[in-house]
Design a protein that fits this description.
By secondary structure, this protein is mainly α. The chain is 38% helix and 2% strand. Helix 3 (56-109) packs antiparallel against helix 4. Keywords: Membrane, Repeat, Transmembrane, Transmembrane helix. The chain crosses the membrane at residues 21-44, 56-74.
Protein backbone atom coordinates (compact mmCIF):
# COMPACT_ATOMS: atom_id res chain seq x y z
CA UNK A 1 0.00 0.00 0.00
CA UNK A 2 2.84 2.34 0.91
CA UNK A 3 4.58 1.59 -2.39
CA UNK A 4 1.47 2.34 -4.47
CA UNK A 5 0.97 5.71 -2.74
CA UNK A 6 4.58 6.63 -3.37
CA UNK A 7 4.18 5.68 -7.02
CA UNK A 8 1.12 7.95 -7.33
CA UNK A 9 3.08 10.86 -5.86
CA UNK A 10 5.89 10.31 -8.36
CA UNK A 11 3.41 10.19 -11.25
CA UNK A 12 1.87 13.43 -10.01
CA UNK A 13 5.30 15.08 -9.95
CA UNK A 14 6.03 13.94 -13.50
CA UNK A 15 2.74 15.38 -14.72
CA UNK A 16 3.40 18.75 -13.11
CA UNK A 17 3.04 21.53 -15.65
CA UNK A 18 6.23 23.29 -16.70
CA UNK A 19 5.88 26.61 -18.46
CA UNK A 20 9.25 26.14 -20.16
CA UNK A 21 8.16 22.88 -21.86
CA UNK A 22 6.38 22.89 -25.21
CA UNK A 23 3.02 21.17 -24.78
CA UNK A 24 1.48 20.07 -28.13
CA UNK A 25 -2.07 20.10 -26.77
CA UNK A 26 -1.66 23.71 -25.65
CA UNK A 27 -0.30 24.65 -29.06
CA UNK A 28 -3.31 22.98 -30.75
CA UNK A 29 -5.67 24.85 -28.39
CA UNK A 30 -3.93 28.13 -29.24
CA UNK A 31 -4.32 27.43 -33.00
CA UNK A 32 -7.96 26.46 -32.50
CA UNK A 33 -8.79 29.70 -30.66
CA UNK A 34 -6.87 31.67 -33.28
CA UNK A 35 -9.03 30.16 -36.03
CA UNK A 36 -12.20 30.93 -34.03
CA UNK A 37 -10.97 34.48 -33.47
CA UNK A 38 -10.31 35.00 -37.18
CA UNK A 39 -13.80 33.67 -38.09
CA UNK A 40 -15.41 35.99 -35.52
CA UNK A 41 -13.51 38.99 -36.86
CA UNK A 42 -14.43 38.03 -40.43
CA UNK A 43 -18.14 37.75 -39.48
CA UNK A 44 -18.15 41.12 -37.68
CA UNK A 45 -16.37 42.71 -40.63
CA UNK A 46 -19.00 41.45 -43.12
CA UNK A 47 -22.03 42.15 -40.91
CA UNK A 48 -21.14 45.69 -39.89
CA UNK A 49 -19.28 46.68 -43.07
CA UNK A 50 -16.19 47.71 -41.13
CA UNK A 51 -14.15 47.74 -44.33
CA UNK A 52 -11.32 45.79 -42.72
CA UNK A 53 -8.91 44.05 -45.04
CA UNK A 54 -10.15 40.69 -46.26
CA UNK A 55 -6.84 39.44 -47.59
CA UNK A 56 -5.61 35.94 -46.83
CA UNK A 57 -2.42 37.33 -45.30
CA UNK A 58 -4.35 39.28 -42.65
CA UNK A 59 -6.35 36.28 -41.51
CA UNK A 60 -3.29 34.04 -41.52
CA UNK A 61 -1.62 36.61 -39.24
CA UNK A 62 -4.59 36.41 -36.86
CA UNK A 63 -4.52 32.61 -36.90
CA UNK A 64 -0.81 32.61 -36.10
CA UNK A 65 -0.92 35.26 -33.36
CA UNK A 66 -1.85 33.13 -30.32
CA UNK A 67 0.47 30.21 -31.19
CA UNK A 68 3.28 32.72 -31.74
CA UNK A 69 2.67 34.30 -28.33
CA UNK A 70 2.58 30.87 -26.71
CA UNK A 71 5.84 29.80 -28.37
CA UNK A 72 7.48 33.09 -27.29
CA UNK A 73 6.40 32.53 -23.67
CA UNK A 74 7.79 28.98 -23.72
CA UNK A 75 11.08 30.27 -25.14
CA UNK A 76 11.42 33.01 -22.52
CA UNK A 77 10.55 30.64 -19.68
CA UNK A 78 13.18 28.23 -20.95
CA UNK A 79 15.75 31.03 -20.92
CA UNK A 80 14.79 31.91 -17.36
CA UNK A 81 15.14 28.31 -16.21
CA UNK A 82 18.50 27.95 -17.93
CA UNK A 83 19.69 31.14 -16.23
CA UNK A 84 18.38 29.93 -12.87
CA UNK A 85 20.11 26.56 -13.29
CA UNK A 86 23.33 28.34 -14.22
CA UNK A 87 23.07 30.54 -11.12
CA UNK A 88 22.51 27.46 -8.97
CA UNK A 89 25.61 25.87 -10.45
CA UNK A 90 27.61 29.03 -9.73
CA UNK A 91 26.18 29.08 -6.21
CA UNK A 92 27.20 25.46 -5.59
CA UNK A 93 30.71 26.21 -6.84
CA UNK A 94 30.93 29.23 -4.50
CA UNK A 95 29.73 27.17 -1.52
CA UNK A 96 32.28 24.47 -2.33
CA UNK A 97 35.07 27.06 -2.55
CA UNK A 98 34.04 28.70 0.74
CA UNK A 99 34.02 25.33 2.48
CA UNK A 100 37.58 24.69 1.28
CA UNK A 101 38.67 28.13 2.50
CA UNK A 102 37.01 27.41 5.84
CA UNK A 103 39.04 24.23 6.38
CA UNK A 104 42.32 26.02 5.58
CA UNK A 105 41.40 29.05 7.72
CA UNK A 106 40.48 26.93 10.76
CA UNK A 107 43.77 25.03 10.50
CA UNK A 108 45.62 28.35 10.44
CA UNK A 109 43.54 29.74 13.29
CA UNK A 110 44.40 26.90 15.65
CA UNK A 111 48.08 27.07 14.79
CA UNK A 112 49.93 29.44 17.12
CA UNK A 113 52.26 30.65 14.36
CA UNK A 114 49.50 31.40 11.84
CA UNK A 115 46.79 32.38 14.34
CA UNK A 116 46.32 35.98 13.14
CA UNK A 117 46.35 34.98 9.46
CA UNK A 118 43.66 32.41 10.24
CA UNK A 119 41.63 35.02 12.15
CA UNK A 120 41.72 37.41 9.19
CA UNK A 121 40.75 34.56 6.84
CA UNK A 122 37.78 33.61 9.04
CA UNK A 123 36.71 37.26 9.31
CA UNK A 124 36.75 37.54 5.51
CA UNK A 125 34.81 34.27 5.32
CA UNK A 126 32.07 35.72 7.54
CA UNK A 127 31.80 38.62 5.10
CA UNK A 128 31.59 36.18 2.17
CA UNK A 129 28.73 34.24 3.76
CA UNK A 130 26.90 37.47 4.57
CA UNK A 131 27.26 38.53 0.93
CA UNK A 132 26.01 35.11 -0.17
CA UNK A 133 22.92 35.55 2.01
CA UNK A 134 22.25 38.84 0.23
CA UNK A 135 22.95 37.54 -3.29
CA UNK A 136 20.84 34.41 -2.77
CA UNK A 137 18.09 35.60 -0.43
CA UNK A 138 16.09 32.40 -0.85
CA UNK A 139 19.00 30.50 0.74
CA UNK A 140 19.81 33.09 3.42
CA UNK A 141 18.43 30.88 6.20
CA UNK A 142 20.90 28.18 5.16
CA UNK A 143 23.82 30.61 5.27
CA UNK A 144 23.10 32.38 8.57
CA UNK A 145 24.19 29.32 10.64
CA UNK A 146 27.55 29.43 8.80
CA UNK A 147 27.93 33.08 9.82
CA UNK A 148 27.14 32.22 13.44
CA UNK A 149 29.42 29.17 13.46
CA UNK A 150 32.50 30.99 12.16
CA UNK A 151 31.84 34.02 14.36
CA UNK A 152 31.58 31.78 17.41
CA UNK A 153 35.00 30.31 16.67
CA UNK A 154 36.56 33.78 16.55
CA UNK A 155 34.74 35.22 19.58
CA UNK A 156 35.48 32.21 21.78
CA UNK A 157 39.22 32.72 21.31
CA UNK A 158 39.35 36.25 22.72
CA UNK A 159 39.44 35.18 26.34
CA UNK A 160 42.80 33.52 25.61
CA UNK A 161 44.14 36.49 23.64
CA UNK A 162 42.97 39.49 25.68
CA UNK A 163 46.21 41.42 25.27
CA UNK A 164 46.56 40.78 21.53
CA UNK A 165 45.78 44.21 20.05
CA UNK A 166 45.59 42.97 16.46
CA UNK A 167 43.15 40.21 17.35
CA UNK A 168 41.09 42.69 19.35
CA UNK A 169 40.67 44.83 16.22
CA UNK A 170 39.44 41.72 14.39
CA UNK A 171 36.95 41.08 17.21
CA UNK A 172 35.67 44.66 16.97
CA UNK A 173 35.27 44.40 13.19
CA UNK A 174 33.40 41.10 13.51
CA UNK A 175 31.26 42.60 16.28
CA UNK A 176 30.21 45.34 13.86
CA UNK A 177 29.46 42.88 11.05
CA UNK A 178 27.25 40.67 13.21
CA UNK A 179 25.27 43.55 14.65
CA UNK A 180 24.84 45.18 11.23
CA UNK A 181 23.42 41.90 9.93
CA UNK A 182 21.12 41.77 12.97
CA UNK A 183 19.87 45.28 12.15
CA UNK A 184 19.26 44.48 8.49
CA UNK A 185 17.64 41.04 8.84
CA UNK A 186 14.93 40.03 11.30
CA UNK A 187 15.54 36.37 10.52
CA UNK A 188 19.15 36.46 11.73
CA UNK A 189 19.84 35.91 15.41
CA UNK A 190 23.19 35.50 17.14
CA UNK A 191 23.32 34.04 20.64
CA UNK A 192 25.66 36.34 22.56
CA UNK A 193 25.13 34.63 25.92
CA UNK A 194 27.92 32.14 25.20
CA UNK A 195 30.65 34.76 24.94
CA UNK A 196 32.68 37.14 27.07
CA UNK A 197 34.25 40.00 25.14
CA UNK A 198 36.93 42.23 26.59
CA UNK A 199 38.03 45.78 25.83
CA UNK A 200 35.55 46.30 22.99
CA UNK A 201 35.58 50.01 22.27
CA UNK A 202 33.17 51.67 19.85
CA UNK A 203 32.39 55.36 19.67
CA UNK A 204 29.76 57.20 17.62
CA UNK A 205 28.43 53.90 16.29
CA UNK A 206 24.82 52.91 15.59
CA UNK A 207 23.69 49.69 17.26
CA UNK A 208 20.01 50.61 17.43
CA UNK A 209 17.58 47.70 17.61
CA UNK A 210 20.15 44.90 17.95
CA UNK A 211 19.67 42.05 20.40
CA UNK A 212 22.74 41.35 22.53
CA UNK A 213 20.92 39.79 25.46
CA UNK A 214 23.15 37.73 27.74
CA UNK A 215 26.43 39.15 26.45
CA UNK A 216 29.41 39.70 28.73
CA UNK A 217 31.11 42.98 27.79
CA UNK A 218 33.88 43.57 30.27
CA UNK A 219 35.94 46.77 30.50
CA UNK A 220 34.41 47.93 27.24
CA UNK A 221 33.44 51.36 25.98
CA UNK A 222 30.47 52.52 23.90
CA UNK A 223 30.85 56.25 24.22
CA UNK A 224 28.27 58.41 22.41
CA UNK A 225 26.64 55.52 20.56
CA UNK A 226 23.11 55.23 19.17
CA UNK A 227 21.61 52.34 21.14
CA UNK A 228 17.90 53.07 20.71
CA UNK A 229 15.68 50.00 21.30
CA UNK A 230 18.73 47.84 21.96
CA UNK A 231 18.13 44.62 23.93
CA UNK A 232 20.73 43.87 26.58
CA UNK A 233 18.66 41.81 28.98
CA UNK A 234 20.60 39.61 31.44
CA UNK A 235 23.86 41.06 30.09
CA UNK A 236 26.98 41.67 32.14
CA UNK A 237 28.13 45.24 31.46
CA UNK A 238 30.20 45.75 34.58
CA UNK A 239 32.28 48.92 34.35
CA UNK A 240 31.16 49.69 30.80
CA UNK A 241 31.53 53.22 29.39
CA UNK A 242 28.18 54.40 27.98
CA UNK A 243 28.58 58.12 28.47
CA UNK A 244 26.51 60.37 26.18
CA UNK A 245 24.92 57.32 24.54
CA UNK A 246 21.30 57.19 23.44
CA UNK A 247 19.66 54.23 25.18
CA UNK A 248 16.07 55.41 24.92
CA UNK A 249 13.57 52.53 24.97
CA UNK A 250 16.42 50.11 25.63
CA UNK A 251 15.79 46.78 27.38
CA UNK A 252 18.23 46.22 30.25
CA UNK A 253 16.20 43.86 32.41
CA UNK A 254 18.31 42.12 35.08
CA UNK A 255 21.42 43.59 33.48
CA UNK A 256 24.57 44.12 35.53
CA UNK A 257 25.61 47.77 35.12
CA UNK A 258 27.54 48.06 38.35
CA UNK A 259 30.29 50.70 38.16
CA UNK A 260 29.07 51.61 34.66
CA UNK A 261 29.52 55.16 33.40
CA UNK A 262 26.28 56.58 31.99
CA UNK A 263 27.16 60.25 32.31
CA UNK A 264 24.73 62.44 30.35
CA UNK A 265 23.18 59.40 28.65
CA UNK A 266 19.58 59.16 27.46
CA UNK A 267 17.77 56.28 29.17
CA UNK A 268 14.27 57.66 28.73
CA UNK A 269 11.57 54.97 28.75
CA UNK A 270 14.24 52.29 29.23
CA UNK A 271 13.35 48.98 30.92
CA UNK A 272 15.73 48.44 33.84
CA UNK A 273 13.73 46.19 36.14
CA UNK A 274 15.95 44.30 38.60
CA UNK A 275 19.04 45.87 37.04
CA UNK A 276 22.22 46.20 39.07
CA UNK A 277 23.39 49.83 38.96
CA UNK A 278 25.44 49.75 42.13
CA UNK A 279 28.08 52.52 42.07
CA UNK A 280 26.93 53.50 38.56
CA UNK A 281 27.67 57.03 37.35
CA UNK A 282 24.41 58.56 36.08
CA UNK A 283 25.12 62.25 36.53
CA UNK A 284 23.05 64.40 34.12
CA UNK A 285 21.44 61.22 32.72
CA UNK A 286 17.89 61.38 31.35
CA UNK A 287 15.76 58.59 32.82
CA UNK A 288 12.35 60.13 32.13
CA UNK A 289 9.66 57.46 32.27
CA UNK A 290 12.18 54.65 32.80
CA UNK A 291 11.22 51.49 34.69
CA UNK A 292 13.67 50.77 37.53
CA UNK A 293 11.49 48.56 39.73
CA UNK A 294 13.51 46.44 42.18
CA UNK A 295 16.75 47.85 40.78
CA UNK A 296 19.94 48.14 42.81
CA UNK A 297 21.20 51.74 42.87
CA UNK A 298 23.27 51.55 46.03
CA UNK A 299 25.82 54.38 46.10
CA UNK A 300 24.90 55.36 42.52
CA UNK A 301 25.57 58.92 41.39
CA UNK A 302 22.31 60.41 40.05
CA UNK A 303 23.10 64.03 40.76
CA UNK A 304 21.34 66.44 38.38
CA UNK A 305 19.73 63.47 36.63
CA UNK A 306 16.24 63.76 35.13
CA UNK A 307 14.04 61.13 36.77
CA UNK A 308 10.58 62.60 36.19
CA UNK A 309 7.87 59.96 36.01
CA UNK A 310 10.36 57.18 36.70
CA UNK A 311 9.24 53.92 38.33
CA UNK A 312 11.51 53.17 41.30
CA UNK A 313 9.16 50.94 43.27
CA UNK A 314 11.08 48.72 45.70
CA UNK A 315 14.38 50.07 44.36
CA UNK A 316 17.43 50.19 46.62
CA UNK A 317 18.92 53.70 46.61
CA UNK A 318 20.89 53.39 49.83
CA UNK A 319 23.56 56.13 50.01
CA UNK A 320 22.72 57.20 46.45
CA UNK A 321 23.55 60.74 45.36
CA UNK A 322 20.40 62.46 44.03
CA UNK A 323 21.46 66.03 44.67
CA UNK A 324 19.65 68.50 42.37
CA UNK A 325 17.94 65.60 40.60
CA UNK A 326 14.49 66.09 39.05
CA UNK A 327 12.15 63.39 40.39
CA UNK A 328 8.86 65.11 39.56
CA UNK A 329 6.00 62.60 39.66
CA UNK A 330 8.31 59.64 40.28
CA UNK A 331 7.09 56.51 42.05
CA UNK A 332 9.45 55.64 44.93
CA UNK A 333 6.98 53.62 46.97
CA UNK A 334 8.69 51.00 49.16
CA UNK A 335 12.08 52.25 47.92
CA UNK A 336 15.08 52.24 50.23
CA UNK A 337 16.56 55.76 50.35
CA UNK A 338 18.35 55.44 53.67
CA UNK A 339 21.38 57.71 53.77
CA UNK A 340 20.57 59.10 50.31
CA UNK A 341 21.63 62.62 49.35
CA UNK A 342 18.54 64.47 48.03
CA UNK A 343 19.81 68.01 48.59
CA UNK A 344 17.90 70.56 46.51
CA UNK A 345 16.20 67.75 44.58
CA UNK A 346 12.81 68.33 42.94
CA UNK A 347 10.43 65.78 44.48
CA UNK A 348 7.18 67.49 43.52
CA UNK A 349 4.29 65.01 43.53
CA UNK A 350 6.58 62.09 44.30
CA UNK A 351 5.10 58.90 45.78
CA UNK A 352 7.26 57.89 48.76
CA UNK A 353 4.65 55.70 50.46
CA UNK A 354 6.27 53.00 52.62
CA UNK A 355 9.72 54.23 51.57
CA UNK A 356 12.70 54.16 53.92
CA UNK A 357 14.23 57.65 54.21
CA UNK A 358 16.21 56.98 57.38
CA UNK A 359 19.13 59.40 57.60
CA UNK A 360 18.41 60.91 54.17
CA UNK A 361 19.41 64.50 53.42
CA UNK A 362 16.39 66.42 52.04
CA UNK A 363 17.70 69.90 52.79
CA UNK A 364 16.53 72.43 50.22
CA UNK A 365 14.44 69.78 48.44
CA UNK A 366 10.98 70.46 47.03
CA UNK A 367 8.43 67.93 48.34
CA UNK A 368 5.31 69.83 47.37
CA UNK A 369 2.34 67.44 47.08
CA UNK A 370 4.60 64.49 47.89
CA UNK A 371 3.15 61.37 49.50
CA UNK A 372 5.14 60.05 52.49
CA UNK A 373 2.42 57.82 53.92
CA UNK A 374 3.91 55.12 56.16
CA UNK A 375 7.43 56.23 55.19
CA UNK A 376 10.34 55.92 57.62
CA UNK A 377 11.68 59.43 58.20
CA UNK A 378 13.99 58.98 61.20
CA UNK A 379 16.96 61.40 61.28
CA UNK A 380 15.99 63.07 57.99
CA UNK A 381 17.52 66.49 57.33
CA UNK A 382 14.56 68.82 56.57
CA UNK A 383 16.49 72.14 56.47
CA UNK A 384 14.83 74.60 54.04
CA UNK A 385 12.69 71.80 52.58
CA UNK A 386 9.45 72.76 50.81
CA UNK A 387 6.77 70.63 52.47
CA UNK A 388 3.68 72.33 51.02
CA UNK A 389 0.74 69.89 50.94
CA UNK A 390 3.10 67.04 51.79
CA UNK A 391 1.33 63.94 53.10
CA UNK A 392 3.33 62.81 56.15
CA UNK A 393 3.06 59.43 57.89
CA UNK A 394 0.73 59.20 60.86
CA UNK A 395 2.52 58.85 64.18
CA UNK A 396 0.90 56.85 66.98
Amino acid sequence: MFFSNKKKVNLHKKRKFKSSTLHIYLLIIAIFFSVILSIVIYGINIKYHLKLGNTLTAYLAIIGSLPTVYLWIVKERKKEEELKNKQQEINQIKVSELNKVYVDAVNQFYNEKTFIAGAYALLALVGDWINMSKDYEEKAKDYYPRVSQISSIIFSAQQYNIDNVTFRSIIVELFKKINRLDQENDEFYFNWSNFSLYNINLSYHDLSGVDMSGINLLNSGFYANELVNIRLNFANLTGIELGRSNLSNAELIRTNLSYASLFNSDLSSAELQNANLKHAKLKYANLTGANLMHSNLIDANLSRAILSGVNLKNANLTDANLMLANLTGADLSRANLSGANLKNANLTGVNLADADLTGADLSGANLKNANLKNAKITNVNWDNTNLENTNFPEFS
